[in-house]
Amino acid sequence: MSKFTSPTSRNKVWTRLAAWLGARAEAAGARLFTDDDARALQQGWQIAPIQHGLGRRYRDPRFDLWRACPACHGNGQWQGVPCRSCHATGRIMIAPATAPLRGGEGHGQDPLASAK
């Protein structure tokens, strides 16, 4: 008696099934996050699909413009006095010439200002 399926053909079936399910999950995620993705693109944010397309990670690239203050090493204090270089925030904005601005409105504003 002969076998109708070989181990390799069985693996092909599972691989194709997994690929098909993955494509369905990505399509569902694309439909689910259409409005959020459009809003993020309008603001110039980066979009990273996660969890096989069923989730999203959004990131504002303006955060790349902020660095720890070299004068106070990012803690806002220098010898017990509020740091004058960073105005005691612990971070400074690097020059836009070294890191191009991307994104929506609010260029040059502190993206962490609302968190203070």
Derived structural class? alpha+beta
How do the SSEs run, as a string of H and E?
HHEEEEEE
Overall tally of structural domains: 2
Total helical segments: 2
Overall 3D shape: elongated
Structural summary, described in words:
There is one protein chain. This protein has 116 residues and is an alpha+beta fold. It is 31% helix and 17% strand. It has two domains: 53 residues; 36 residues, no CATH class. A two-stranded antiparallel ribbon has the order 1-2. Strands 3-6 form a two-stranded antiparallel ribbon. Strand 4 and strand 5 form a beta hairpin. The longest helix is centred in the N-terminal third of the chain and has 26 residues. The protein is elongated, with a radius of gyration of 24 Å.
What is the structure about, briefly put?
The chain is of the alpha+beta class and 116 residues long. It has helices at 7-32, 34-43, and strands at residues 46-50, 55-59, 66-68, 77-78, 81-82, 91-93.
Features of this protein?
116 residues, alpha+beta, 2 domains, two-stranded antiparallel ribbon, two-stranded antiparallel sheet, 2 helices, disordered C terminus
Detail the topology: elements first, then pairings.
Layout: H1 7-32, H2 34-43, E1 46-50, E2 55-59, E3 66-68, E4 77-78, E5 81-82, E6 91-93
Antiparallel strand pairs: 1-2, 3-6, 4-5
